[in-house]
């Protein structure tokens, strides 16, 4: 029986938070609570319900390695299928009863005496935990650019991550602003409903084909019943993704194949030369996220759709105005303008040792040891933290590795003879960050502006290597990388747990 059983507070119940809870529970660490601000689990798969929302990473790899679902309806599953899968996983591993729904953690403060996190909750109450695991995602805070006049728009407007399903688009004059991964998924559906659709593009993206047809019954049956087929498919897909990483690392042959596929897709679907010109990217392949759709370009060629690439200058009560003075009438604006990708834990405030906030620590751009730990924030382990996003690959692979690392850290705390805390050494984190940034300097991501970089040009979001390199490097916590803080023994009343 351990002398001290650490309590764990996880913030967020998306793929990351659930993965952490599963890893901890599998290690017998049962004193854990997931705080979830919404009334349902699911993270981005709860929030993004726009028409056509689907993962563009195949479900056989966009799923936990230890909880393989054998009956996906199609290669890249729609959001509700993924959301259901995550709920099933949470139920199967006993996570669901440990989620405190409708409870937002507004502030977490490190108590240096007690070696414990003090949590302030949205309902005005408090909680405590030995270990804090922010699992807030990188794509959870929708953003909308400050375009003059947007607040004077008299029609209806909403962000793609807050889709208003009660607003019927049939016959309407719709303006879609933004042409990223979300927009290319919902534009084909909006184009079918709208009377007229203007798609406002600032930068064209590279696209690869994806028809994503439902599996034929025999294929579906084979995946279900042929032993090893699912595992082999998963392995093959992961290998293919790692091969594509080569293109981002400058492999010319693979880059040329992918570029040719994108070029062919554009030429096959867009006959009009002017439209093709507008859709042709002028930046290095892979610098921004490569998009996948076989339906987006055809949607733009419809009679009721116009692609506008002149910059927007203003929004009026009933139009979007571009710099050439043209007023584009609209009664609905859909903002497909992405997310605040670099706040990582916001709007939660985190105050570490010496009263230093995480916002201060990250003033020049967020950084963390393998995206997991930050000096001066003991016993805080981030999921999907800085420099852990992938240009190509399955984020679930990264999240599983992080969850396993966190479970290892907590297991080692449990083996101590009293309260203790891991504080990553500043020199270790600094050296890791310098090396990561050096690798990133050689990547394609430094060659254009994207949500991976901050205004100073630092690549804040992405991991520079292969998935397998990250998994190998985070297999276990190396105590040499950390200072182990110890506290005076607590009174027994202090030992009461997280929430
Ligand atoms: P995004 O990729 O950040 O795209 C935002 C779009 O808004 C871009 O086209 C951007 O143009 C445009 N924009 C921003 N400010 C603008 C302005 N002032 N005027 C005009 N246009 C403006 O956001 P997202 O499409 O929501 O996707 C975010 C990420 O979510 C993706 O990269 C992906 O990782 C993830 N996602 C994944 C899936 C999936 O299938 N797994 C699906 C959807 C989203 P610029 O390019 O010029 O900045």
From TrEMBL:
SUPFAM superfamilies noted in UniProt: FAD/NAD(P)-binding domain (SSF51905)
Keyword Ribosomal protein: no
Domain of life: Bacteria
Keywords, sorted A to Z: FAD, Flavoprotein, Oxidoreductase
InterPro entries, per the entry: FAD-bind_Monooxygenase_sf (IPR051209), FAD/NAD-bd_sf (IPR036188), Flavin_mOase-like (IPR020946)
Family: Belongs to the FAD-binding monooxygenase family.
Protein name: NAD(P)/FAD-dependent oxidoreductase
Organism: Svornostia abyssi
Lineage: Bacteria, Bacillati, Actinomycetota, Thermoleophilia, Solirubrobacterales
């Amino acid at each position: 029986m351990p002398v001290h059983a650490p309590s764990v507070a996880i913030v967020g119940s998306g793929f990351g938070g659930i993965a952490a809870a599963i890893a901890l529970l599998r290690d017998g660490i049962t004193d854990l609570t997931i705080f979830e601000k919404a009334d349902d689990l699911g993270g981005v798969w709860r929030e993004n319900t726009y028409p056509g929302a689907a993962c563009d990473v195949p479900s056989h790899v966009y799923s936990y390695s230890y909880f393989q679902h054998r009956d996906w309806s199609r290669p890249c599953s729609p959001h509700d299928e993924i959301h259901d899968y995550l709920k099933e996983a949470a139920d199967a591993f006993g996570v669901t009863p440990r989620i405190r729904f409708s409870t937002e953690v507004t502030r977490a403060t490190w108590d240096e005496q007690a070696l414990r996190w003090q949590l302030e909750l949205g309902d005005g109450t408090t909680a405590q935990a030995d270990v804090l695991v922010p699992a807030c995602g990188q794509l959870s805070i929708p953003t909308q650019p400050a375009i003059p006049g947007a607040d004077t728009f008299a029609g209806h407007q909403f962000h793609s991550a807050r889709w208003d399903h009660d607003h019927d688009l049939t016959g309407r004059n719709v303006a879609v602003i933004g042409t990223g991964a979300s927009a290319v998924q919902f534009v084909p559906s909006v184009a079918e409903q709208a009377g007229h659709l203007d798609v406002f593009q600032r930068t064209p993206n590279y696209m690869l084909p994806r028809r994503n047809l439902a599996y034929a019954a025999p294929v579906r049956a084979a995946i279900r019943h042929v032993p090893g087929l699912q595992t082999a498919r998963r392995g093959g897909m992961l290998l293919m993704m790692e091969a594509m990483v080569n293109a981002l690392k400058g492999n010319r042959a693979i880059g040329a194949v992918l570029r040719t596929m994108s070029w062919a897709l554009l030429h096959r679907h867009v006959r009009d030369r002017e439209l093709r010109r507008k859709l042709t990217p002028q930046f290095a392949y892979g610098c921004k996220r490569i998009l996948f759709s076989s339906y987006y370009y055809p949607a733009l060629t419809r009679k009721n759709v116009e692609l506008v690439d002149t910059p927007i200058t203003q929004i009026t009560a009933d139009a979007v105005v571009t710099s050439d003075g043209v007023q584009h009438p609209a009664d609905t604006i859909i903002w497909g303008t992405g997310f605040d990708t670099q706040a990582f834990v916001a709007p939660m405030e985190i105050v570490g040792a010496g009263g230093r906030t995480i916002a201060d620590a990250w003033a020049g751009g967020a950084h963390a040891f393998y995206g997991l730990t930050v000096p001066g924030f003991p016993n805080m382990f981030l999921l999907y933290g800085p420099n852990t996003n992938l240009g190509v690959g399955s984020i679930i692979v990264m999240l599983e590795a992080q969850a396993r690392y966190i479970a290892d850290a907590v297991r080692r705390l449990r083996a101590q003879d009293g309260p203790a805390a891991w504080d990553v050494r500043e020199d270790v984190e600094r050296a890791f960050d310098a090396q990561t940034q050096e690798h990133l300097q050689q990547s394609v991501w430094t060659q254009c502006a994207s949500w991976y970089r901050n205004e100073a040009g630092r690549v804040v979001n992405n991991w520079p290597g292969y998935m397998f390199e990250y998994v190998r490097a985070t297999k276990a916590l190396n105590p040499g990388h950390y200072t182990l803080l110890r506290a005076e023994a607590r009174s027994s009343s202090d030992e009461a747990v997280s929430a």
